[in-house]
Amino acid sequence: MVQSQTVSASRGLRGEITVPGDKSISHRSVMFGSLAKGVTRVSGFLQGEDNLSTVKAFRAMGVTIDQPGDGELVIHGLGVHSLQEPADVLDCGNSGTTIRLMSGLLAGQSFFSVLTGDQYLRKRPMGRIVAPLAGMGASIRGRQQGQYAPLAIDGQQLKATSYQSPVASAQVKSAVLLAGLYADGVTTVYEPHLSRDHSERMLRHFGVEVTSFDGGVSLAGGQELTARDLLVPGDISSAAFFMVAGLIVPDSELLIKNVGINPTRCGVIDILKKMNGSIELVNEREMAGEPVADLLVKSSDLKGIEIGGEDVPRAIDEFPVISVAAACAEGTTVIRDAKELRVKETDRIAAMADVLSTFGVTVTTAEDGMTVQGAERLQGGRVNSCGDHRIAMSSAIAALRADGDVVIEDTQCTATSFPNFWQLLGTVTV
Ligand SMILES: O=C(O)C1=C[C@@H](OP(=O)(O)O)[C@@H](O)[C@H](O)C1
Ligand SMILES: C=C(OP(=O)(O)O)C(=O)O
């Protein structure tokens, strides 16, 4: 049954919260832990649906993964050449990260595998990974000449590549690097702007030599991974909903604890600060090769700004909620260079333009972004998430500032990345 949620205006957000573990790092912990030799203990693992798809896929390839407690995994890795042919199709659900990274990994195995996903994932572009992997000798077939899943992968001996990616995408970069682990020679990926570097950091954590340089990254094939414990920080993409909520709702003061602030991910903090948002980083520290801090957020009078260039990949999943901040800011916000938003779980430019216009906000869209006119007041109404977790949660945050109740339809998708979102929102809103 399709679920919905009704959200009313808030008189302030107060208290301390901890958001669930980082989705990108959680995926990689399962993948790299499964390839490592030895036992990897993960804590802070995100038990969202996307990550559970990754766990299921590795179990289907013979890896023993125990879940002794909430957010805990024990992965019994047997080395880079230990995976077994899965007996059935691997279902990646809604998760772009799962299907794209696993395609790179499976391209170099000595077995056959098929990857698919839900109705949203089967519409997302796969040619962006199929093309560079084919250049390494991979045999991958998919619908419409390899553009769309299901993808059928006939594992091959791969050769190293030097690939110039046309998009700043960590999924493309990581897929090619994972294939590169199985290739003869040194694989290099160049990208137009630096995308999130969790793969590079975690591979190093597991003892792989990875060289990052201005414009790209390279690694030599044939390296082994050695198991090491991992602590997953809170997901900045999940924290972003509460950052914006704390800024736009008057009389708010919120401490969001234990948030990953990797420089390739913290564009949302820089953008919101540029909008005059009060966000203070306290207790900065490092956890398993990733920087972490607590974020103190206070209600602020936001102002419109221009956003584009290298800030875009550093905040790519946060644009739906950044557009909510823009709707509550004084003046105009222009978002450019963000065409990638059109190929996420939904077309997030079109979806947010729809949502914000229901709230009474004036939005114009462009192929690569949108212009949002800040509004004095938001109005209530009925919106639909289109099955996209980030659209559902962004709508909920806008509703905290609306004059009337907001009904959000199709809200079960929040379990993709933030299973306790509604409960947490309830605990901090006055
Ligand atoms: O590598 C990752 O974990 C991710 C990379 C990004 O996608 P792209 O690589 O398509 O930019 C991001 O949108 C996604 O949520 C997670
Ligand atoms: C785009 C996202 O994830 P993925 O690409 O892994 O589906 C997201 O979480 O916003």
Automatic annotation (TrEMBL):
<protein>
    <recommendedName>
        <fullName>3-phosphoshikimate 1-carboxyvinyltransferase</fullName>
        <ecNumber>2.5.1.19</ecNumber>
    </recommendedName>
</protein>
<feature type="binding site">
    <location>
        <position position="28"/>
    </location>
    <ligand>
        <name>3-phosphoshikimate</name>
    </ligand>
</feature>
<feature type="binding site">
    <location>
        <position position="24"/>
    </location>
    <ligand>
        <name>3-phosphoshikimate</name>
    </ligand>
</feature>
<comment type="function">
    <text>Catalyzes the transfer of the enolpyruvyl moiety of phosphoenolpyruvate (PEP) to the 5-hydroxyl of shikimate-3-phosphate (S3P) to produce enolpyruvyl shikimate-3-phosphate and inorganic phosphate.</text>
</comment>
<keyword id="KW-0808">Transferase</keyword>
<dbReference type="InterPro" id="IPR006264">
    <property type="entry name" value="EPSP_synthase"/>
</dbReference>
<feature type="binding site">
    <location>
        <position position="348"/>
    </location>
    <ligand>
        <name>phosphoenolpyruvate</name>
    </ligand>
</feature>
<feature type="binding site">
    <location>
        <position position="124"/>
    </location>
    <ligand>
        <name>phosphoenolpyruvate</name>
    </ligand>
</feature>
<feature type="binding site">
    <location>
        <position position="23"/>
    </location>
    <ligand>
        <name>3-phosphoshikimate</name>
    </ligand>
</feature>
<dbReference type="InterPro" id="IPR001986">
    <property type="entry name" value="Enolpyruvate_Tfrase_dom"/>
</dbReference>
<keyword id="KW-0057">Aromatic amino acid biosynthesis</keyword>
<feature type="binding site">
    <location>
        <position position="344"/>
    </location>
    <ligand>
        <name>3-phosphoshikimate</name>
    </ligand>
</feature>
<dbReference type="InterPro" id="IPR013792">
    <property type="entry name" value="RNA3'P_cycl/enolpyr_Trfase_a/b"/>
</dbReference>
<feature type="binding site">
    <location>
        <position position="171"/>
    </location>
    <ligand>
        <name>3-phosphoshikimate</name>
    </ligand>
</feature>
<dbReference type="InterPro" id="IPR036968">
    <property type="entry name" value="Enolpyruvate_Tfrase_sf"/>
</dbReference>
<dbReference type="GO" id="GO:0009073">
    <property type="term" value="P:aromatic amino acid family biosynthetic process"/>
</dbReference>
<keyword id="KW-0028">Amino-acid biosynthesis</keyword>
<dbReference type="Pfam" id="PF00275">
    <property type="entry name" value="EPSP_synthase"/>
</dbReference>
<comment type="pathway">
    <text>Metabolic intermediate biosynthesis; chorismate biosynthesis; chorismate from D-erythrose 4-phosphate and phosphoenolpyruvate: step 6/7.</text>
</comment>
<feature type="binding site">
    <location>
        <position position="23"/>
    </location>
    <ligand>
        <name>phosphoenolpyruvate</name>
    </ligand>
</feature>
<feature type="binding site">
    <location>
        <position position="171"/>
    </location>
    <ligand>
        <name>phosphoenolpyruvate</name>
    </ligand>
</feature>
<comment type="subunit">
    <text>Monomer.</text>
</comment>
<dbReference type="InterPro" id="IPR023193">
    <property type="entry name" value="EPSP_synthase_CS"/>
</dbReference>
<feature type="binding site">
    <location>
        <position position="390"/>
    </location>
    <ligand>
        <name>phosphoenolpyruvate</name>
    </ligand>
</feature>
<feature type="binding site">
    <location>
        <position position="169"/>
    </location>
    <ligand>
        <name>3-phosphoshikimate</name>
    </ligand>
</feature>
<comment type="similarity">
    <text>Belongs to the EPSP synthase family.</text>
</comment>
<feature type="binding site">
    <location>
        <position position="317"/>
    </location>
    <ligand>
        <name>3-phosphoshikimate</name>
    </ligand>
</feature>
<keyword id="KW-0963">Cytoplasm</keyword>
<dbReference type="GO" id="GO:0009423">
    <property type="term" value="P:chorismate biosynthetic process"/>
</dbReference>
<dbReference type="GO" id="GO:0008652">
    <property type="term" value="P:amino acid biosynthetic process"/>
</dbReference>
<feature type="domain" description="Enolpyruvate transferase">
    <location>
        <begin position="10"/>
        <end position="424"/>
    </location>
</feature>
<dbReference type="GO" id="GO:0003866">
    <property type="term" value="F:3-phosphoshikimate 1-carboxyvinyltransferase activity"/>
</dbReference>
<feature type="active site" description="Proton acceptor">
    <location>
        <position position="317"/>
    </location>
</feature>
<dbReference type="GO" id="GO:0005737">
    <property type="term" value="C:cytoplasm"/>
</dbReference>
<feature type="binding site">
    <location>
        <position position="96"/>
    </location>
    <ligand>
        <name>phosphoenolpyruvate</name>
    </ligand>
</feature>
